[in-house]
């Protein structure tokens, strides 16, 4: 097993379970010290303990990324406690799905606050630190809905499109400081949340995937571990689909 992220410090937001935990676990497997960020303390603690049980290095810091002060504290506390910050993965996200003509302002605001503003809230203080150090890897989680839209997800799709624009802009601004910024577009991933969909809906989604199966959180983690490594030092402003050839 390669340990090409040895001595690197990584933050993964929304990492207590699902795709976020898969990402955190893979980064730890590659040698990084991982800071699990989540809003639920019990889940965050359990996630960090699982990684440590697997031989990795992990801790947790609670943060609601939609709150700038909490996001800023997440970045600064990590730097103070771990001595540095090399990798930031913005994975935290929520859904408040409903048709546009029924969508409430509260549902719109909540999704934009976490899925888009939350990414900015973490990136801004991280960018300050990474510019000074002239090193950094920022990887944002978007969605295929940024390009295609999705019925019932006007808020989610708009937020994820914003993440792509933010990623591309930050990559242009930070490139000269040796900071890369990329985005991942996950396909249909087998998580606790997706396992809750009806069997018929599951089969329909899998039928759209050329590889004939749902992905695993670790599949996303593998791509992120590569983008976080020195082997990807010349890759920035990229939008990478990890979906097994999913056709939407």
Automatic annotation (TrEMBL):
Keywords: Lipid metabolism, NADP, Oxidoreductase, Steroid metabolism. CDD domains: BKR_SDR_c. InterPro entries: KR_dom (IPR057326), NAD(P)-bd_dom_sf (IPR036291), Sc_DH/Rdtase_CS (IPR020904), SDR (IPR050259), SDR_fam (IPR002347). Pfam families: adh_short_C2. Gene3D superfamilies: NAD(P)-binding Rossmann-like Domain. One of its GO terms (biological process) is steroid metabolic process. Residues 8-187 form the Ketoreductase domain. SUPFAM superfamilies: NAD(P)-binding Rossmann-fold domains (SSF51735). PANTHER family: 3-OXOACYL-(ACYL-CARRIER-PROTEIN) REDUCTASE, 3-OXOACYL-[ACYL-CARRIER-PROTEIN] REDUCTASE FABG. Belongs to the short-chain dehydrogenases/reductases (SDR) family. This is 3-oxoacyl-[acyl-carrier protein] reductase. It comes from Lactonifactor longoviformis DSM 17459. The lineage of its organism: Bacteria, Bacillati, Bacillota, Clostridia, Eubacteriales.
């Amino acid at each position: 097993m390669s340990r090409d992220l040895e001595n690197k410090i990584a933050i993964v937001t929304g990492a207590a379970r699902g795709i976020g935990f898969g990402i955190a676990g893979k980064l730890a497997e590659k040698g990084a010290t991982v800071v699990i960020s989540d809003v639920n303390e019990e889940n965050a603690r359990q996630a960090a303990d699982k990684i440590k049980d697997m031989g990795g290095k992990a801790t947790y810091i609670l943060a609601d990324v939609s709150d700038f002060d909490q996001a800023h504290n997440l970045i600064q506390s990590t730097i103070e406690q771990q001595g540095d910050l090399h990798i930031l993965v913005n994975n935290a996200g929520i859904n408040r799905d409903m048709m546009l003509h029924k969508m409430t302002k509260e549902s719109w605001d909540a999704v934009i606050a976490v899925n888009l503003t939350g990414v900015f809230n973490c990136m801004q203080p991280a960018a300050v630190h990474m510019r000074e150090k002239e090193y950094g890897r920022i990887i944002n989680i978007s969605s295929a809905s940024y390009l295609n839209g999705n019925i019932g997800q006007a808020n989610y799709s708009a937020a994820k499109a914003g993440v792509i624009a933010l990623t591309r802009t930050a990559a242009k601004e930070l490139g000269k400081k040796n900071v890369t910024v990329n985005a991942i577009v996950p396909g249909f991933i087998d998580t606790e949340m997706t396992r809750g969909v009806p069997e018929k809906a599951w089969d329909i989604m899998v039928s759209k995937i050329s590889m004939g199966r749902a992905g695993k959180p670790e599949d996303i983690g593998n791509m992120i571990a590569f983008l976080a490594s020195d082997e990807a030092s010349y890759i920035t402003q990229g939008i990478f689909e990890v979906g097994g050839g999913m056709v939407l």
